[in-house]
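User: Teach me something about this protein's shape.
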Amino acid sequence: MKARLWLLALAVSVGVVVAPPAYSLKAQQDPARPNVLVIETDDMRADDLRFMPNVRNLIAERGLSFENSFAPNPLCCPSRTSFLTGQYSHNHQVLSHVAPYGFGAFDDANTLATHLQDAGYQTALVGKYLNGYGSQPVHGTGEPSLNYVPPGWTQWRAGSDYGNFPAGSPLQGSTYNYWSITMNVNGTIVGNRGRYSTAVLGEHTRDVLARFVGDAKPWFVWWTPVAPHFGNPVEADDPKPVLGSDGVRRPYETPARPKWVRGKFNATIRHGIGVRADGTTEADVSDKPEFLQLPDVNAGERRALLKSSRQRAEALYVLDRQIGLTLAKLKKLGVLAQTYVVFTSDNGYYLGEHRKRFGKILSHEPSLRVPLIVAGPGVPPGKRYDPVMTIDLAPTISDWTGSGPIPKCDGTSLRSVISGDQGWNRVVLTEGLDDGVNGGLPGATFANGLNIIGIRVAGWSYVRYSNGEGEMYDLRADPLQLTNLYSDPVHADQRALLDGVWSQYLGCPESTCRTPLPPQLRASAAEERDWTIQQKQETAAYYR
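Assistant: First, the predicted structure itself:
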């Protein structure tokens, strides 16, 4: 009965009529080898799920929501590379999204895709790959990447960042042009001028699924829409560049949206999501590192953050419609029951928290936290509070598919956590390379090329910067990270304990990245659940 009600909800959400039981597959697929669909958004915060009813009702309601899900390096390229390799960025060496990093720094000869294809899976990417794909040369060869298709992919339908098409060319566009996404479709460059990219990528995803179904081989599809990342074209209702309280005029870039969705959340989003209802942000940042001691937002910046918050929500709602259509397609094709559906994001995003107007990279909760929802064979409905990371997805998918261990993997399969919380007994290593743009972290890097390295453990956040500054927060007493205890002598012993763990994980390889926490920093399943719920409640109340 419950399954029938879920099917009815799916049908209503996407505007279809409930059909008789789906037809059989044209070829018999081994039920022990499930399919996997991963939907990874771009710059989506964990709390953005409120704008996606299909994701909540059709995936979360029949699966697990992971309430402590983190992107260890909260930036597009490092995070996506971590998904494909199961490695921290200090091991895969894609440290940023601009040259000499980005696509050109990634050796993609051995990835989750090659691993699954070698195990007999059909594989597909639909959407964004890595920044610089199409414009930067292929790693190790120096060859142009415009027509390059990486190894391991049966179907390749990727956005291209190539920017040298002549004016007026039907191919002119980019991954981040919402109304003109240029794509490499299995080696052929295809333009989509005048078509909204979220819908284009949704159609491509459903086409790939229809092609794969009917083959006896199982499949893995990585669908990577651009929403809610900012992108062209500029629209009339976009926020204009604003002169900030510090005298710097900044653009507030937003995603483009179809006209039908504009204004959808005007009544529910009354102020910027990271700005308090009274228009203020963090009251005192004098305890923060010097490069984070930013002035409070002014009236013009508050208006820009409000527009940005609304437009991001609208872009996600459009994507949510495409997700509903795609789940309905899987049901019609008769394969939904044997398909794991994973929904996540590459990183979070600031919208005013800690006076950060926008961006990511830093190791604060709005930047680190990402949604993670899993539904599929044997996955019970509910919530889990154990810490999980982007690096865990590749070994989890390998575990589901029976394709053997991922080589040189830092993450761990989530199979045991799916069965039940074990308690917080592992480190979440946080990393970043802030290039100093827009007042970011200046100066030299650590030996591994990063300038932000931290650990997130049960109840504590500890970060060191390469310029000698740092941050430390007691998240049980201070879940919003408002009071930096890094230089507080009262907490010197706690800092020494955390610093010892920090040193142990600095540059860790493979299995050493999975060394359990010392007992003093662990938490039981009940404790981590209570703290997480408290943190969510206090954060919501603070920004209400």
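Now, about its shape. The longest strand covers residues 35-41. The radius of gyration is 22 Å. If you'd like, I can walk through any region in more detail.
User: That's plenty for now, thanks!
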